[in-house]
Structures are given as C-alpha cells and as structure tokens.
Amino acid sequence: xxxxxxxxxxxxxxxxxxxxxxxxxxxxxxxxxxxxxxxxxxxxxxxxxxxxxxxxxxxxxxxxxxxxxxxxxxxxxxxxxxxxxxxxxxxxxxxxxxxxxxxxxxxxxxxxxxxxxxxxxxxxxxxxxxxxxxxxxxxxxxxxxxxxxxxxxxxxxxxxxxxxxxxxxxxxxxxxxxxxxxxxxxxxxxxxxxxxxxx
Length: 199
Hints:
The chain has one domain: endopeptidase fold (from Nostoc punctiforme) (Alpha-Beta Complex). It has 199 residues and is α+β, with helices and mostly antiparallel strands. It has helices spanning 2-43, 45-67, 69-72, 82-88, 139-143, 159-168, 182-191; strands at 92-94, 106-111, 114-122, 125-130, 133-138, 147-151. A 6-stranded antiparallel beta sheet has the order 1-6-2-3-4-5. Helix 1 crosses helix 2 (45-67) and helix 6 (159-168) packs across helix 7 (182-191). A hairpin with a 2-residue loop joins strand 4 and strand 5 (133-138). InterPro entries: H-rev107_PLA/AT, LRAT_dom. One of its GO terms (biological process) is N-acylphosphatidylethanolamine metabolic process.
C-alpha cells in the first residue's frame, strides 16, 4: 500500500512541477515578445509603429471576441466552452473579497458587451482610463456592480514601479479604442508593452 502512495505522490509532484514549468515558459515568451518589439521600435521606428498598430488592432479584436463570445460560437458543436476553461485557469482568479487584492493587481470588470481594465493602487482605489482620461476611482465605482477578476498579466517591474508608472500618466486624455485603451494602459504600467493574451 505504501508503494502506491509513493507512486501517487510522485505523479502529483511531477504534475505540479510541469504546471510551474509551463507557466514559467509562457511568462518568458511574453517578456521575449515585448522585448523584441521594443528592440524593433528602437532600431526601426517605422516598422515599430506598424507592429504596434497591428498589436493594438489584434488586441481590440480579441477584446471584442472575449466580450461577445456567443456571436462567434458555432452552433451544434462539440468545441469546449472557453468561458468555463478560462474560469478554471490559474491565470484568472475570481475575487472572493476586496481585501484579497494586492497592490498593482491587473483588474478586469466584466461589463455588458465588453471588459474594462484597471490597476489596483491600494486603499480600495483603481487607476484606469475612464471617460477618455486616466483617473483614480474607488473600487466600487470601477466595479459598477459588475463581476470583477484579477488577471495575471506580465509584470516586469516591481509593484512600486508599476504604481509610479501609472501615476506618471494620471490626467492623460489620449484614449483610443484601438491604439490606446484601458488594457493598453494597464499592460504598459506593468510591463512597458501592450502585448496581451488576445494576440
């Protein structure tokens, strides 16, 4: 009996190690993509702008698809429900209590027809692009009675640097749905880039 317990323990540990490895590889790939894009922009600004524009357009399309999954779901199919898969994913954590939030968390409020992104800055406050401006609102105002989640987006800066970067753009009024939206803002604060999983 002890032998089987050891075998079970071995496979459970192997499974956990594999999950950590895959998560680390995904993080490294995201960081590599962001770094490569920054290098291209540095050495060839024109090409960098093209890549940035394509990146933002793909992100906007991805956001639209995520926000309106029923439009794109084929009827009578055996394709798995992506919503339930994302819900179970380790990268999406449903908030149980506001007290579980950590400084510089990437927040998503699931609103009717779209998702809204913000950065948690402590004291039940969120900095985000709202009504065309980077501003600070209370967590309750950010939620607007919606479901809220934390997403594990790439963070290449410390929490303090992320918050500092966010405050450096406070009051900015250059919102653009395709090229400079709320998700771009949070990703820029956390990693300096605008790459997302929707690409």
